[in-house]
Structures are given as structure tokens and as C-alpha cells.
Amino acid sequence: MAxxxxxxxxxxxxxxxxxxxxxxxxxxxLSAASPTPPATSTPAPSPTPTAAPEAxxxxxxxxxxxxxxxxxxxxxxxxxxxxxxxxxxxxxxxGTALTLAFGVYRMNGSGCQPWPGVQVDVWHCDADGVxxxxxxxxxVGENYLRGYQLTDDKGMARFQTIYPGWYMGRAxxxxxxxxxxxxxxxTYEFTSQVFxxxxxxxLVYAAAPYSSRPAREVRxxxxxxxxxxxxxxxxxxxxxxxxxxxxxxGTFSIGLQA
Length: 258
Fold this sequence. Notes:
Layout: H1 3-13, E1 20-24, E2 61-65, E3 97-108, E4 111-114, E5 119-123, E6 146-150, E7 156-162, E8 173-182, E9 185-195, H2 198-205, H3 228-231, E10 239-242, E11 248-256
Parallel strand pairs: 3-11
Antiparallel strand pairs: 1-2, 3-4, 3-7, 5-6, 5-8, 8-9, 10-11
């Protein structure tokens, strides 16, 4: 897709970014066990980021703006935690293993409470910067790196994926959407993006398959979404750590006014 179309779509959708939600600060509660990537995943280079956050009480909440959906959302309705390949199992995408865990909380007067049973969709590009099921990228009918999970009783949703690649005009990011339903009717929706520390991305991109591409053009400080809304991207950084199996564990907690 041409840069002008992508930027035009993003700029138009930025008008909705004034919606206010609350992003949780502090450590994210995690289960004791995380999915282990298979041997086909590309090992993360050394050194790795700091250790993953340990279990902690539900954090306090801080207000932060939502972010644009972007042009590549497709409601595939794929209920799955492992999103590395198509639903058929074909097109397994190569890349450094990443287990991405979201903690979803509802805001109240004294802090946040876990929000169980809400739908968390994620979608992102592969190591070559390509999104699935997009005609402009010749990937119609494919659905890798897309899926949703329902949050558990602790408000957690986990995805087994790969570290995202980059494409022209954007820093490295993952899109996510949170929806609540009642009787088949949507009662709530929130959309945003998460970003990754540039130093961690530099380490990942030094290894295959990322290293076969030119250096990325845009870092966080130059990304139109990251720096928009009063530099809101700084509040949307994934906390990265080692998954203990050669890949990465990323966590992000968000509180919602709903």
C-alpha cells in the first residue's frame, strides 16, 4: 500500500484519539507458566531485556488517550492464543518468539479491578512488514498474526506470536482492540496500540529474519502515533523480559473507564 494512503488513513482516524481511558502502571500479574515457543521460532539475541515482571497486586490507574485503529483491522473472529500461522496451520511466520500478555482492568474510585470475559483482539505485521488478509499486500485469505482471546478471571489474555517487523512510515507496534458484549450486542469498545523499546528492537533486528531487511526508517521518537496525543506512546510501551526459552515475554496492563 502506498505511503500516502496509509498516512491519510492514520491521520483521519487520529480524530478519534481524544477518547480517554486509563492505563495501569506498575507490574502486571502473570500466571506461573507461559507458553513455550517451538524450536522453529528464531531465538532472541543476547543480551536479553530485564527479567519479566513478577505477580503483583492490581496497580493504580493513570489516565491515557486511546490510539487509532489504523487501516489493517479485519474482524476475523479467530478465537485462539497462538496466532503465528493461518488458522489452517499454514504460513507459519518466522521470527523471534514473543508471548504477549494483556491485563485488562475496570477503573473504580480506588483503583482497578480485573475485567474478566472481555474480548481482546490483536493484529500486527510479520517480520517483512506485511499484514495478512490485505489485498494491497497480496495476502487476502491468509490470517496469520491475527486473533482474539477472552480475559480470564484475573483479567488476563495471552497470545503466542512473533516480534513484529516494521513497515514504511511507522515504528514497531502491535494493534489491540478490547470489546465487551452482552447477548451478542457490543456494549463497549476500546482500541489502541502498544510499542516496543527501541534498544530491544535493535537487538531483535540484528538476527534473522529481520536482519535481511534494510534498517527501519522510523523509531519511536519519530512515529506520528507514538508522539501524538501529548507523546502518549511513552505510556504504551510493552514491558519486555526473557521467556526462559530463547524468546521474549511482553506484558501490558490497561485500565478502562467502562
